[in-house]
Amino acid sequence: MDSNELKVCQNCRRAISTLNYATHILHCERNIVLCKVCEEPVPSATIGEHIAEEHATVTCGKCNAVVEKSDLEKHNANLCPFRSVICKYCNIDTPFNVRDEHDRFCGSRTEQCETCLRYIPLRDAASHRGCEVPVNVAC
Question: In a 10 Å sphere around its CB, with 0-12 CB exposed, 13-18 middle and 19+ buried, how is residue 80 labelled?
Answer without folding.
Answer: buried
